[in-house]
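Possible regression after last week's pipeline update?

I re-ran a chain I had predicted before the update to compare outputs. Posting the input and the new output here so someone can diff against the archived version. Not blocking, just want to make sure nothing changed silently.
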Amino acid sequence: VVVPRYAVSQPTDFSVTAIAGRAVAYEFTPEGARFTRKLKVTQSLRGTEWLGLPLLDFRAVYFKDRDQVDPIKSLIQVDEVLPLALDLLRLQVSFEVEHFSGYGISTGRVSSLE
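New output (post-update):
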């Protein structure tokens, strides 16, 4: 996570915790923090199961609560879908966030109405 100058108004401790399981999902703290400038999050694809997945479908996703992540089925109930940049040369993806809670990488979406 890259925090640009003036993104926060006071010294702030940040942490990122990977959620166990196959999903590429993390909890970011301080939870609920909002930023005056976007933070850049970068995720390496090394060690993930991305090969053979539709690369054009990769998106960053936001979820409000850890209970929205099913670590066994590798599913996330999503509150917001965000664009991301895919860098195959470096085998990484990056995206920008304006607030903290949970974020992950999605390679396909299904409507909960289906």
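Follow-up from reviewer: compared with the archived run. The chain has a mean pLDDT of 87. Marking as no regression found.
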